[in-house]
Design brief:
The protein has helices at 3-15, 22-77, 101-115, 142-148, 156-165, 189-192, and strands spanning 82-87, 123-126, 130-138, 179-188. It is α+β, with helices and mostly antiparallel strands. The protein has one domain. It has a four-stranded antiparallel β-sheet. α2 (22-77) crosses α5 (156-165). It is globular. The structure holds heme C. Heme C binds at residues 51, 56, 59-60, 63-64, 67-68, 86, 88, 91-93, 96, 137, 139, 141, 143-144, 146-148, 158, 171, 180-181.
Length: 193
């Protein structure tokens, strides 16, 4: 086994801290999965519709203008003490960068495990006042590559828009099955009690 994989596995074992009761873990997983799904459902179908009706350039503008607003809307609807966001090591929107070294390490662990063909599962991190549930996001469809792919796959008009809108865009060069990032659900410990 490669050194990096052992590191990553150790990391995930630490994260599933054994002092987190099994019952709590179950609850964290449930809220995490549901909240991640709510965000996904707020974004993906709308994006799909835009692409179909108006093409990739317009759909890119839609993402740029609406993704954050829709995320705020979803957060308003979630129960108190629960919030959701997307993060990526190669983020397009600076607002989607990891906020600390834990978030960064988990994204790196997902990358490492995925590149070693380990099937990714959500992870739980225990903090002082809250838990974080991390759901890995993979590039599963060719359509993602139209806006996140390499020279051969990216849509030219979309690329032109990204160059103007995001001077530090890192979210390109992806291939099918790459880890694009994660959905992070933060759950206050009071919610789990
Ligand atoms: C029409 C262009 C377009 C398509 C298609 C597209 N994206 Fe994006 N994506 C964007 C834009 C623009 C952003 C930055 C705006 C934001 O989310 O705040 C973004 C951001 C993201 C982010 C947040 C991290 C970051 O880079 O800021 C993730 C995760 C993501 N996309 C995943 C996907 C996946 C998975 C697919 C395929 C199902 C996909 N995208 C398809 C345009 C696109």
């Amino acid at each position: 086994m490669k050194k990096g994989i052992i590191l990553a596995l150790t990391l995930s074992a630490t994260l599933f801290a054994s002092n987190t009761q099994e019952k709590s873990q179950h609850k964290i997983m449930k809220i995490g999965k549901e909240s991640a799904k709510t965000l996904f459902k707020a974004l993906e179908p709308q994006l799909k519709k835009k692409i179909k009706k108006e093409g990739f350039a317009k759909a890119s503008e839609f993402c740029a203008n609406e993704a954050q607003k829709l995320t705020i809307e979803v957060n308003k609807k979630l129960q108190k003490g629960v919030s959701v966001k997307r993060i990526s090591l190669k983020n397009r929107n600076p607002l989607n960068a990891p906020v600390n070294t834990n978030e960064e390490s988990i994204l790196k662990a997902f990358d490492l495990l995925n590149s070693s063909s380990v099937k990714l599962k959500p992870l739980i991190e225990e903090g002082t006042n809250s838990y974080k549930f991390y759901k890995p996001l993979l590039i599963k469809k060719g359509v993602c590559l139209k806006c996140h792919g390499d020279e051969n796959t990216i849509n030219k008009d979309a690329k032109e828009f990204f160059n103007k809108k995001y001077p530090n865009d890192k979210a390109i060069g992806y291939k099918i099955n790459d880890v694009r990032g994660a959905i992070v659900v933060e759950i206050n410990k009071k919610v789990i009690k």
